[in-house]
């Protein structure tokens, strides 16, 4: 059973292992691996495994089950990884390759023969084959051959597109190169990347490479472009994995992990080559996991797709009832049993249109093409329709809502005596720890002499006026100048660029971690003296790592003041390090404690000009927006106000939840922004907020979110319903937030710029990555636009596609019902439609209209009401029923008008079916039904409010005019050739033929009026008979309950888990 609850049957494979491999493997791994190969205590040692979605599952006897091969190395520690620097022996490498398989992300491209066989077995084509066989038996040769040719053409296009997509994905996923690995003998050997296994020691060349596996960096530093994998456009500096006994995880150690598919731009080993140890290969890598998610996507839980199958069953029931009626009519007509069976089965092929599933995808195809022209690329087309039902969109802040780059706003030094005056320009600071910290505490590197790194750090270093220098060659010269320490980089004042008198060397880096919210470096002065550790990060985190007496008393008030102005605030700290310590191997935990607080660095992060407009568009469309950021909560609130997420007359309430400690219970408190009310004033606040109609927004940080999830789960849905700002959120918390919102039945969109947002982008119903990388697999949608203006466009295209899919579904259903009614009416009078009459309607009218119907583009604005996604809703079923009734009445009217004419001659009642052609009844019913196919195409094609009006789709409009003119010509004056080919009766009475056209016009007016009335909600009166029902969406039911709860949230009250108010949603 897979992660989606689907069951699969897999073939178990066996492989013989080398003699003596059991003992060797026992030395390498734990006992589980020994159980893996000791399945049969015979002369041969066998490995049992199977492959599923590219992953290898091996049998572990101790666990009594098949487990992923990655389980063999999931408990590796940092110490284990560092021990692999000596390299593997050839025998060890061979054995591991047997266990893990080749290092390939192999996207299979099936041969055309296999694809054809699988495609033909699709239920759609099986039904087509049944229909064609039936028509051939019934001697509908021309029609059957035409449909056969169309089906072959359709299959050919489908196979070409599938194979093209598979080849594109394979080219993006599969990569084989030569790499240099170290053997345990010390010899460096060049091998194919297919041969790599976990534990291999890889030597990274200085010029870098495209990495074919996941690896932990053990020595040297690497500048990596991860845009293909994460969508993050800024190169990332990777540093060596610290030593120690702690466990290793690629997610928590991202800054020390080189991921498969990423481009290593530059590798620096400080005189030696950079070294990494392979941790994952093939589909077990991060890239392999993403490719697998594309190849085997999560089943789309979308109502439209579910209702499509149910609706086909409904049409099947209609076909069954029609079949019973036709059997009765045919039996009374004394037809043969063979003809009775053929005629009855023919009705099934009419009532259930086999082209329906293919037709409804045309709207999505057109939308995908339009999006590509706008610079939005989609790797999961079914999600385009889901975009039309988005009810909440989450946005990252930095780089998404705000500019990627920041401008330094000022520096304020602080200490035990308090804060000094604000210094607008850091270069004006007096020489000292604060200035050195600003110049040193970063991961900026040089590429061809140009500084490269995080935009924030680039601005910070630039503001100090210091220059950056990196070692050249083996770096021995710089190392000797700075006491023999391995120098990573040197920073010095610009005025001293020719000497090293005031230069500071960076000898150890601990890169920024989103989970830790900080980074640090260790530096030494000239001669290796004055070793200092500098730390930079979020003010709350930095203050917690400093000695309490060094943190100014005004810390909180100053931080609140700066953050409230929308400034990005960072804090810096430092401490001296014992020079006798081995600075190259010092642990991060040792560096980042007992620090001295230095002060604040403030940066101005401007909101992008487009952000406020987009948020306003979403708000006017009743689409909720939320901010999910790793920044300070007050800064986030300020940005939320600036971009319009929080209105000027709306209040912000902070949610503060704390986990339990040894001395206290977990607590939950709601406090109004800027509220310092006394107890008497506090009682007035709820009344002002809730009873006088003030809107409010909740704001919560990552720590409170975690405590809320763990200790106040009953309050979590209510907070999620009202929260707009989620600050200091770690990457895994962003993913958790999206999933919790989905539990409330929100359709969640997520927009970010990659990296820390990747998990949330993939978890969301619609993930949009703002990236220059067209081939990014970070999310279903990738936009080359650098702002969030792509979001309304995507929603508009989603709504347009969904409405188009609805229109096509209804049109194909009505087409089958029109033809179904025509055949039943004609069966009743002992005749039927001719072969070419079927072909004319199916091929030249319906197929052409269905193809071009989906070309209409989206409306220019977002409407407050989202389109429906239910095909079984009352308006849809009601309109179909009413239109079917109008169709039947129209065809019967045409028939009765014909039989009431003075010149009417009844058909030959001694024969049945095509033997009676041509005749008056057939011609009148066929003529009106031909008009009805065109009429319904106009009636069900929706324009306002989610699509452009009909006249914008000029191809569709021209086709309607041509088909209407052609049908009118066939009714009024078909001519001898067309009349003979279509087996039409030649009516001589022009008044009668004009009357048929008038009946068709009346049919159009009535159907159009019915559709307008249904759109206006005339069928809603039927809902009043059953009484008002609660919404099926949990967030809507919860919103009603909260609106009826005037004192929630209780302000300035500390609640424990047993005290909070519970509002249940059943």
From TrEMBL:
GO biological process terms, semicolon-separated: autophagosome-lysosome fusion; intracellular calcium ion homeostasis; regulation of autophagosome size; regulation of mitochondrion organization
Domain P-type ATPase A residue range list: 178-294
Subcellular location: Membrane
GO molecular function term, any single one: ATP binding
Domain Cation-transporting P-type ATPase N-terminal: 79-134
Record has Membrane as a keyword: yes
Keywords: ATP-binding, Magnesium, Membrane, Metal-binding, Nucleotide-binding, Translocase, Transmembrane, Transmembrane helix
Assigned GO CC terms: late endosome membrane
Membrane topology: Multi-pass membrane protein
Lipoprotein recorded as keyword: no
Family under the similarity heading: Belongs to the cation transport ATPase (P-type) (TC 3.A.3) family. Type V subfamily.
Protein name: ATPase cation transporting 13A2
Protein species of origin: Gasterosteus aculeatus aculeatus (three-spined stickleback)
């Amino acid at each position: 059973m897979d992660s989606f609850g689907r069951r699969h049957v897999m073939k178990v494979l066996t492989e013989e292992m080398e003699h003596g491999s059991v003992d060797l493997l026992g030395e390498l791994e734990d006992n589980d691996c020994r159980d893996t190969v000791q399945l049969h205590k015979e002369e041969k040692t066998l490995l049992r495994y199977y492959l599923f979605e590219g992953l290898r599952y091996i049998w572990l006897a101790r666990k009594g089950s098949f487990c992923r091969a990655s389980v063999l190395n999931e408990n590796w520690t940092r110490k284990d990884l560092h021990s692999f620097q000596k390299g593997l022996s050839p025998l060890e490498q061979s054995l591991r390759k047997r266990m893990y398989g080749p290092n390939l992300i192999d996207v299979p491209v099936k041969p055309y023969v296999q694809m054809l066989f699988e495609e033909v077995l699709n239920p759609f084509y099986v039904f087509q084959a049944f229909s064609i066989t039936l028509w051939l038996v019934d001697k509908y040769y021309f029609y059957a051959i035409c449909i056969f040719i169309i089906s072959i053409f359709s299959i050919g296009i489908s196979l070409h597109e599938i194979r093209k997509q598979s080849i594109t994905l394979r080219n993006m996923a599969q990569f084989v190169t030569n790499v240099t690995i170290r053997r345990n003998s010390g010899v460096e050997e060049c091998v194919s990347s297919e041969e790599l296994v976990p534990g291999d020691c890889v030597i990274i060349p200085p010029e870098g490479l495209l990495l074919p596996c996941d690896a932990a960096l053990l020595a040297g530093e690497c500048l990596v472009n991860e845009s293909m994998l994460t969508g993050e456009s800024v190169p990332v500096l990777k540093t060596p994995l610290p030593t120690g006994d702690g466990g290793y995880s690629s997610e928590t150690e991202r800054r020390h992990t080189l991921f498969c598919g990423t481009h290593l731009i530059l590798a620096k080993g400080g005189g030696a080559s950079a070294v990494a140890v392979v941790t994952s290969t093939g589909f077990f890598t991060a890239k392999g996991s993403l490719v697998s998610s594309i190849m085997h996507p999560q089943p789309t839980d979308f109502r439209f797709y579910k209702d499509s199958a149910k609706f086909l069953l409904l049409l099947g029931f209609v076909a069954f009832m029609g079949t019973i009626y036709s059997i009765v009519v045919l039996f009374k007509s004394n037809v043969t049993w063979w003809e009775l069976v053929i005629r009855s089965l023919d009705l099934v092929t009419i009532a259930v249109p086999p082209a329906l599933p293919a037709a409804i995808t045309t709207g999505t195809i057109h939308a995908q093409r339009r999006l590509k022209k706008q610079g939005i690329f989609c790797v999961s087309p079914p999600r385009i329709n889901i975009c039309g039902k988005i009810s909440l969109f989450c946005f990252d802040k930095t780089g998404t809502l705000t500019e990627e780059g920041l401008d330094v706003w000022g520096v304020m030094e602080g200490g035990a005596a308090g804060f000094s005056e604000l210094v607008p320009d850091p270069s004006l600071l007096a020489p000292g720890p604060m200035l050195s910290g600003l110049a040193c505490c970063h991961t900026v590197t040089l590429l061809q002499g140009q500084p490269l790194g995080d935009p924030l750090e680039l601005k910070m270093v630039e503001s100090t006026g210091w220059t950056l220098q990196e070692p050249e060659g083996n770096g021995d010269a710089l190392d000797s100048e700075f006491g023999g320490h391995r120098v990573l980089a040197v920073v010095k004042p610009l005025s001293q660029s020719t000497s090293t008198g005031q230069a500071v060397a960076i000898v150890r880096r601990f890169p920024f971690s989103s989970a830790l919210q900080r980074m640090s470096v260790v530096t030494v002065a000239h001669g290796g003296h004055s070793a200092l550790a500098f730390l930079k990060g979020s003010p709350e985190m930095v203050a917690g790592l400093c000695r309490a007496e060094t943190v100014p008393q005004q810390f909180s008030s100053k931080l609140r003041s700066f953050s409230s102005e929308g400034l990005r605030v960072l804090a810096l700290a430092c401490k001296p390090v014992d020079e006798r310590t081995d600075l190259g191997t010092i642990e991060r935990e040792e560096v980042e404690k007992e620090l001295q607080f230095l002060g604040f660095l403030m940066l101005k992060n401007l909101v992008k000009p487009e952000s406020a407009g987009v948020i306003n568009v979403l708000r006017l469309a009743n689409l909720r927006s939320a901010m999910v950021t790793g920044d300070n909560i007050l800064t986030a609130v300020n940005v939320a106000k600036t971009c319009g997420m929080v209105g000027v007359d709306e209040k912000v309430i902070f949610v503060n939840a704390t986990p339990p400690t040894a001395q206290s219970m977990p607590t939950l408190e709601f406090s109004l922004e800027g509220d310092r009310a006394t107890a008497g004033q506090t009682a007035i606040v709820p009344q002002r907020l809730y009873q006088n109609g003030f809107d409010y927004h909740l704001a919560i940080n990552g720590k409170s979110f975690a405590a809320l999830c763990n200790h106040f789960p009953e309050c979590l849905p209510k907070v999620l319903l009202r929260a707009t700002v989620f600050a200091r959120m770690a990457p895994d918390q962003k993913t958790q937030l999206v999933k919790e919102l989905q539990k409330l039945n929100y359709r969640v969109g997520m927009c970010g710029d990659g990296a820390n947002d990747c998990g949330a982008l993939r978890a969301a119903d619609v993930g949009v990555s703002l990236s220059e990388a067209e081939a990014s697999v970070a999310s279903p949608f990738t936009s080359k636009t650098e702002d969030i203006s792509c979001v309304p466009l995507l929603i508009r295209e989603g709504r347009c596609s969904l409405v188009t899919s609805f229109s096509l579904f209804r049109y194909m259903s009505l087409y089958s019902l029109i033809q179904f009614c025509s055949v039943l009416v004609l069966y009743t009078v002992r005749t039927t439609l001719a072969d070419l009459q079927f072909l004319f309607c199916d091929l030249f009218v319906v197929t052409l209209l269905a193809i071009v119907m989906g070309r209409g583009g989206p409306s220019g604005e977002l409407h407050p009401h989202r389109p429906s996604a239910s095909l079984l809703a009352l308006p849809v079923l009601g309109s179909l029923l009413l239109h079917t009734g109008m169709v039947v009445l129209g065809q019967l009217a045409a028939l009765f008008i014909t039989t009431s004419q003075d010149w009417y001659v009844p058909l030959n009642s001694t024969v049945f079916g095509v033997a009676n052609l041509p005749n008056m009844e057939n011609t009148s019913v066929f003529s009106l039904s031909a008009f009805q196919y065109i009429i319904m195409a106009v009636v069900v094609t929706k324009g306002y409010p989610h699509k452009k009006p009909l006249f914008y789709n000029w191809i569709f409009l021209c086709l309607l005019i041509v088909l209407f003119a052609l049908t009118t010509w066939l009714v009024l004056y078909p001519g001898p050739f067309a009349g003979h080919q279509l087996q039409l009766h030649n009516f001589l009475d022009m008044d009668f033929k004009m009357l048929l056209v008038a009946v068709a016009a009346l049919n159009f007016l009535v159907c159009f009026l019915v559709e307008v009335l249904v759109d206006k909600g005339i069928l809603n009166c039927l809902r009043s008979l059953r009484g008002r029902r609660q919404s099926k969406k949990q967030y809507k039911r919860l919103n009603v309950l909260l609106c009826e709860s005037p004192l929630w949230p209780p302000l300035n009250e500390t609640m424990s888990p047993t005290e909070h108010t519970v509002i249940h949603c059943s």
